[in-house]
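User: I'm preparing a small set of examples for a lab meeting where we compare how different chains pack in three dimensions. I only have the primary sequence for this one, and I'd like the structure in token form so I can line it up with the others. Please keep the answer compact; I'll paste it straight into my notes.
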Amino acid sequence: MPRQLVAKARFLRAYRQLPETDQRLVDVVLRHFEHYLRTNSAPAGLGVKHFGGRTYEFRAGLALLGTHDDVRRFLKSQ
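Assistant: Understood. Below is the structure token output for the 78-residue chain.
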């Protein structure tokens, strides 16, 4: 079964509040991440961290849509 990205409501709200230039940056990084999921090869700077199971963290830019603390809180709530 192919992997699929699922955007949580919180992500979508934060994404919509970004300036258009930052939204385009996030779009590019999401495409890189989808490529990583298919090939297990990430471009330099993507900063993928696999937490196990279906949970990943990756970098789009500094504090665009969340921090490491946000990820930790999310993981604890699961």
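A couple of notes for your slides: The two ends are 23 Å apart (CA to CA). Residues 35 and 41 are 7 Å apart (CA to CA).

User: Perfect, thanks.
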